[in-house]
Design brief:
The protein has about 130 residues and is mostly helical. About 65% of the residues lie in helices and about 5% in strands. A hairpin with a 4-residue loop joins strand 1 and strand 2. Helix 1 packs parallel to helix 3.
Length: about 130
Amino acid sequence: MACFLVPATEAIVTTTIKKVIEKKEKAPVFVEVDLGKGKETVQPILFSRKLKWLSNMLWGGSVLLAFEHLWHGEVTLYSPFLTAASNPQDLHAMLHEMATTGVSMAVLITVVWGGMVVVSNVMAKKALVKE
């Protein structure tokens, strides 16, 4: 019904934080590393770019879910937009779905992103250690 609103809200927050961090980050430092094919100059991945990964994952999932809910008639293009909001008895079910399914999806996406960040950091450290 409205589970996509939770990841969409997290996407709004992460996009805002990313924009603030981008303004505060300094220009990237280039590092010369040996990747097996001779020395190459590489640029470390800034945290704002990693945060953009999370933001993109959240926005993409939210848009797909919103379309799916629109397709099944759970979301309409006219007020009250969420069909469950038009009936007070369905409101409890909608809030329950947001609290369970929506939060679970947002947490899972964030955990996957955390794994991506850890892997990218390990790969970057291995490249620097070879140097």
